[in-house]
């Protein structure tokens, strides 16, 4: 392929020994480890440096709950120095508890404990204690095994056993779930509750000084007795800090290649795999991301932490904030109140996912471009002007429209917002453009994997469309390899195509106790096979065009990537979730569609009111998703919407869904078990769950 040197936006590694060319970010064409002048290679060093330089700056904050008035109060913070003291004590306390227990089990177990590098489970929603636990474990060269708050019993049991966790730090509501399964957890000897076990719900507003509902003194006493009967030690966070404070165990700092955490990739089939991520992985990723941010942003990094910390995305961003000596505020625990939290905290970074951005797009649209009367007219003109400026490289600000309109929309998240990031799947370009101009900030679409620490390729401040104009992140090298069964070849003209492979200092060290899966994922020792199909553009950028995994064939031999079709369907405002399926003896696709009740019901009501004679007396006022889902007129209208959407996204004819089932119950982690804890569809389970429905759609 001949690249255009005038528009080239990546560095092509010369004499690449493999097909597909190796590509790097232009800023680090000489080395994947570049510009790290402060030589910090562990998160322990990054935190200790922050404490030395800004000991009295706020670091972690939360919103205390007022149980009397049933409201969340303004953020309360702890400084870097305060967090350090708590982390020092907690890390020492964990070691003391482990040493005491090991002494009862013999010299071999005591030696293992003293040698460090063993796991502590962490099981809760995002909160200060999770971060303090991370800081604490680093002081003793221990590592965490993260558990999603939404995990079912079998996954919890698997992770705690696979990681061989001796102790688990969890929120109070998880204690009974662990005790129910304690006979299946032979390694677990201690549970630490993040919530106090000692005080009653007396109306206090301090997070650690009241028992969250439905707990009370009596119920906690029952938990203590239960744990004691199972020979499990039950502590609360504050007690472990006190244990560690008395005759504190000195720090045992980690080395760069020591494990920082095990992150369990929520596989859509089988047990989750534990990606081993080191201090070096995370520290270099933080350095690279911060270097990129500082090219564009004026505010020190700060964020509201709400996406699961058991996932690499939020964990990585918390470390970026720590590297910049910024602030982290934890959400109140209710995702529906996330923008209340951001308005109270005023972060400079907002980490989202495409579905959340689409909801935000719909909310702002209703208040601006879709508003009735003069406001709607003015808003449409303002958005049009700003998008034209955006496309002509004139930036995200407009002196007039921002003053009268968009300063208010920006404040929906934060007046300090200058960095909005989204991952897990590409966000639609029209959504990104709209939010860019209404929030006055560029949106960075990121593509990566747990195994690459969330790093990989992404859009830049100039281009939001990751599917068309992605470049490698700093510290990442990318190449393609042939996928002949899909007819994607690195020799394709004019654009090479193939599976995306990535490597760099941020890439993982393999799967914990799973050499077979490690060997499957790592190509030529260091390259990670992503399972996604990329294409090289004339300017060297990379477009994501398909998905290798989960492919199936239709009767005429066409390969179908269901994720590709689902990503298109899920951009429609009427659709909350979708599951696309097919049978090899049939020539077309079918789908299970979960309507979004926030948009679907108002849309359906308007149709019923305008076509009353067609709906056999169905009342627009009393309709719900379940009754509408069984209506053939509604189904056919949704199919028409899907056809138009497929045309707009230029899907091939065989990729267009021809029959649908409207499902009133959303796919869930616990409700029907069709989602992983990271909200990815369990395709194998969904196919079994909807087997009869899929067959009926072909009749």
From TrEMBL:
Coiled coil regions in record: none
Matching Gene3D superfamilies: N-terminal domain of ligase-like
Keyword ATP-binding tagged: yes
Sequence ranges assigned to domain AMP-dependent synthetase/ligase in this UniProt record: 75-512
GO cellular component terms, semicolon-separated: endoplasmic reticulum; membrane
GO MF terms held by the record: ATP binding; long-chain fatty acid-CoA ligase activity
Keyword flag Transmembrane helix: no
Superkingdom as given in the UniProt entry: Eukaryota
Short name of any one Pfam family annotated for the protein: AMP-binding
Keyword annotations: ATP-binding, Nucleotide-binding
Protein name: AMP-dependent synthetase/ligase domain-containing protein
Organism encoding this protein: Smittium angustum
